[in-house]
Amino acid sequence: MSTGFRCKQFYVDHRDCAMKVSTDALLLGAWTQLPVSGAILDIGAGSGILTLMLAQRSQQQADLIIDAIELDGAAADVAAQNFRQSDWHTKIRLIKGDILTYPASADHLSHRRYSLIISNPPFFVDSLKAPDPKRNQARHTDTLSFADLLKVAATLLTPEGMFSLILPTAAAAQMITLALETGWSLNRQCLVQTKASKAPGRCLFSLSRNPVSEAPVIEQLLIHASDGSYHSDYRQLLQDFYLKF
């Protein structure tokens, strides 16, 4: 089993993390639009892959800082190590704790509002559990429901802030519906297909608390071309990270 994942400018050790580096995380980290300034929060940081991707993308923005919160102690320790070994450790702050009780779970840290919140959240609802309780925590909504996630994000975002996520398409539809019913607006959405003959399997989307007068931007992304190679759009999106690109 792989103990880590190497990108062009950093390495992610994920050996003690319930969820390993995945295509979902790489897509979200590359697709999300960065704010010009302020602070970013990565909810459920795991190995820290999303935080490191955003740190790399914002390395020319010295005043853009990133907080990463992780509930599982072992994963938080791995993320801390990954951050320390990166070129951007001075702009990253690790928070060990529960997002539902933040900042009380990290009382030694100051509470701030964020221009961007990003998350690759648990999405299984009332599904068969795996034997590994840490994997269940990372994948099932028992400890972090969509409603709770939207509620806490609403309290932590700046008025102009954005909340960016990736979910399987069915789960994304559920969350977007819930978001619209609770005062959120859908700003941008990208349906991801592994190939043109397959239905979209993942949905990237960004939400805000401000009403929007225009229809959301709807995009599509193919991972593989008809000949099985990586699609040019996918290559372009991830060219700064994948060694093979």
Structure in words:
- The chain contains seven helices and ten strands.
- An eight-stranded mixed sheet has the order 5-4-3-6-7-9-8-10.
- Helix 1 packs parallel to helix 2.
- The chain is globular and about 40 Å long.
Uncertain residue segments:
134-141
The first-level CATH class is given as Alpha Beta
CATH superfamily: Vaccinia Virus protein VP39
Strand order of the largest sheet: 5-4-3-6-7-9-8-10
The proportion of residues forming helix, as a percent range, comes to 25-40%
**Integer-rounded radius of gyration:** 17 Å
How is the main sheet built?
Answer: 8 strands, mixed
Please outline the helices and strands:
Layout (H helix, E strand, L loop, with lengths): L3 E3 L4 E3 L9 H9 L6 E6 L5 H9 L6 E7 L2 H12 L7 E5 L17 E6 L13 H7 L6 H11 E12 H13 L3 E9 L8 E7 L8 E6 L9 H7 L7
Helix pairs in contact: 1-2
Q: Brief overview, please?
A:
The protein contains seven helices and ten strands.
Question: How would you describe this structure in keywords?
Answer:
Rossmann fold, alpha/beta, 28% helix, 245 residues, two-stranded antiparallel sheet, 7 helices
